[in-house]
Specification:
This protein has 697 residues and is α+β, with helices and mostly antiparallel strands. 25% of the residues lie in helices and 25% in strands. Helix 5 links the parallel strand 10 and strand 11. Bound molecules: dioxothiomolybdenum(VI) ion.
């Protein structure tokens, strides 16, 4: 098995290496790339939710002084590959959702581009659209697989028989809302097409992976990888929305090709992001539980209905955590999709696990109440010895320890069967479990070189604000056995070796593994006293990938909710999470990841909600004035703790990935605390006053 690194720099909390640049405003983001004489794009978006563009009148736009190009479905270049319906921009006059890209204006200034885009007159043959998600639709279908390649349905034992014979059963339907990623830095691309030779494209794109980004652009435009460079040293957040390129990247590339030699900039507005950069599907989750009087589950089932766009299927893997979370001899998960006239949904922090840990974790709370069992104990009673789905032993699983330590830190033992009243406020405590799979991508390569008397590790990895700039040097230093101060890294450029996407909480696990292989090879080859220019390269070692164990991070989250007895106003003064996430590389940046995830989970529970107007086929609250996100004032005391967990199986660092687990289970813990406070069970997110008031009496 993997030789674990001896932690020296690992486990320390050096400050962010990119911190000063960001605080001083000198870290260069995609839109700010200093380029000579840039032109600016503004997209033209469909104003019908379904139909066909019959004509585009660009005369008024083109008449404006300074407009350089207007591209429409009728004059845009034909793409080499249109198999991805999201990327096939301006190839067909058909409109599949409101806000879809149907044109772009390029002009001397961004203001002019916007003005000209407004002056483009579009005629449509409009058709009736359908964007209503419901579990009763007769056209729900079973996708071939769910993201990224899980089985759509699973069944073990006989859930129906267990439901018919168990001492206690429960069946409820839970719903999660539509949510949009809103990273601080909106999506942006600067594109430069150099017409010399065979042509060379440079993209400064805000992305979670320069190499996957390049691969997609090459496929769509029929380019060789050595014709394209993608650069992205800094990302102002992504959460999955920059994990794959979206249509605007193809639009910017197309615009740059129309103006060879001229750099072209495209920055999405916050409003455009609600149409064009992905979102989390709403889900409808039917949960069934069967148990004996001691709470031991005999059946757990989750049947999910969710949506996809028609131009590109995305099937969120909402049922996946139910397959492995608890011991139950009978288990069933299913996924059904409604294909609607809606924008393309995609990744948002912990796709699958995040919505999938809502319904079942609330249902467990309901079962605990029915049985009169403490919800912490109910989870412990159902702790599986091995992964219920695969039968494999866990690489490490410390959910019980997380629950116990969390309960102790939180003061859970003082909790009674009902919450209490404090003046005008109803106070309650809730708990839920967290989980996220530990992943390592198959491909990544790193170089290690001795240069100017320093060690340099190069890999095309992305730091979305997660801390990669800071923690990859820690890993490299330990793998080389040198001082952290003697190590530099270079990231975020396809000129460096191929790196996997910063997604699935796999970045550190994957890139750190490649760096470790390269560093160990360097030591072996050059000893302790290298010479200038000595260099090695290393790939993620597939032979070293353990597949004998089921590898997951686990956690437990505890919430205190206070609900105003008269107004229903909800406050969360305390949120405490305890996690088993393997070895923590850098406690400072790790804490930030975990409390960031927990805050986003609180936000999902109480604030965020893309209110989809099914008459128009668009998100009504498509800006940050009305799409509410939890802010500092909404978060009271928030603590993330972790166990001293050692896992020899996952990778050389012993790390499990921390970007996503923090958002899983949080919303259930909030709902459970609100129920404990008020007796009102809200099964549909977000928990808003209107859902509580009728029950407050
Ligand atoms: Mo994350 S949704 O895997 O970028």
């Amino acid at each position: 098995m993997t030789g674990l690194l001896e932690p020296r720099a690992i486990g320390q909390s050096p400050v962010r290496r990119d911190g000063e640049l960001k605080v001083r405003g000198t870290a260069v983001y995609a839109m700010e790339t200093p380029v000579e004489n840039p032109a600016y794009c503004h997209p033209v978006q469909a104003t019908v939710a379904r139909g066909r563009v019959t004509a585009v009148d660009t005369a008024a736009a083109e008449a404006l002084d300074g407009v350089l190009a207007v591209l429409t479905p009728f004059n845009a270049e034909r793409l080499a590959d249109t198999s991805d319906g999201e990327f096939a921009v301006l190839q067909e006059p058909d409109v599949a959702f409101r806000g879809q890209l149907i044109g772009v204006v390029v002009a001397e200034t961004s203001e002019l581009a916007r003005q000209a885009a407004d002056a483009v007159r579009v005629s449509y043959a409009e058709q009736p659209h359908d964007s209503v998600l419901s579990a009763d639709r007769d056209d729900l279908y079973k996708p071939d697989q769910v993201n990224p390649s899980f089985e759509t349905d699973t069944a073990e034992g006989d859930v129906a028989a267990a439901m018919a014979t168990a001492e206690v059963t429960l069946e409820h339907t839970y719903e999660t809302a539509m949510y949009h990623n809103n990273p601080l830095e909106p999506h942006a691309t600067t594109a430069l097409w150099d017409p010399a030779g065979a042509g060379f494209l440079t993209l400064w794109d805000s992305t979670q992976g320069v190499h996957p980004d390049r691969a997609a652009v090459c496929q769509v435009f029929g380019l060789d990888e050595d014709q394209v460079r993608v650069v992205c040293p800094y990302v102002g957040g992504g959460f999955g929305s920059k994990g794959q390129p979206h249509a605007h990247v193809m639009l910017a590339t197309m615009a740059a090709r129309a103006l060879p030699g001229r750099p072209v900039k495209l920055a999405m507005t916050r409003q455009q992001m609600f149409f064009l950069t992905g979102y989390r599907t709403p889900t409808i989750q039917r949960v069934q539980l069967a148990a004996d009087h001691r709470g031991r589950l005999s059946a757990i089932a989750l049947d999910v209905v969710e949506q996809t766009s028609k131009v590109k299927e995305f099937a969120e893997q909402t049922g996946v955590p139910t397959r492995m979370m608890y011991a139950s001899p009978s288990r069933r998960t299913t996924h059904r999709l409604a294909a609607l006239d809606v924008p393309v949904n995609s990744w948002m922090r912990a796709p699958g696990e995040c919505p999938g840990m809502f319904g079942p974790e609330v249902a467990l709370d309901e079962l605990a109440e029915t049985l009169g069992i403490d919800p912490v104990e109910l989870r412990i009673v159902n702790e599986p010895e091995v992964d219920p789905e695969t039968g494999k032993p866990w690489s490490s699983r410390h959910l019980v320890e997380c629950l116990r330590e969390g309960a102790q830190r939180f003061g859970w033992s003082s909790r009674g069967a009902r919450g209490h009243r404090d003046g005008d406020w109803l106070v309650g405590l809730g708990v839920a479990s967290s989980v996220y799979p530990t992943m390592r991508q198959a491909q990544s390569t790193a170089n290690v070189r001795f240069e100017n008397g320093r060690y340099v590790a190069e890999i095309g990895a992305a730091d979305l604000g997660t801390g990669a700039w800071t923690i990859l040097p820690q890993i490299a230093a330990d793998a080389l056995g040198v001082d952290l101060a003697d190590v530099d890294v270079r990231l975020g450029d396809t000129r460096y070796p191929t790196a996997s996407v910063a997604g699935g909480s796999s970045g550190t696990n994957t890139w750190g593994s490649a760096i470790t292989v390269a560093a160990r090879a360097f030591r072996e080859k050059f000893g302790a006293d290298p010479r200038e220019g000595d260099e090695t390269s290393g790939d993620v070692d597939q032979a070293d990938q353990d597949d004998e164990h089921a590898a997951y991070a686990f956690g437990a989250q505890f919430v205190e909710a206070r609900v105003n007895a008269d107004t229903g106003e909800i406050r969360v003064p305390r949120l405490i999470g305890v996690f088993g996430v393997g070895r923590v590389i850098n406690p400072r940046t790790a804490r930030s990841q975990l409390i960031g995830g927990m805050t986003m989970g609180l936000s999902m529970a109480l604030h965020e909600n893309s209110a989809f107007d099914t008459r128009l086929g668009q998100v009504a609250n498509h800006d940050l004035a009305e799409y509410h996100i939890t802010v500092n004032a909404d978060v009271g005391e928030i603590e993330a703790h972790w166990l001293d967990e050692h896992d020899p199986y996952v990778n050389a660092m012993g790390s499990k990935g921390i970007g996503e687990i923090g958002i899983t289970g949080t919303a259930a813990a909030v709902v459970n605390a609100v129920h404990h406070a008020t007796g009102v069970r809200v099964r549909s997110l977000p928990v808003t006053l209107d859902k509580l008031l009728p029950g407050l009496g």
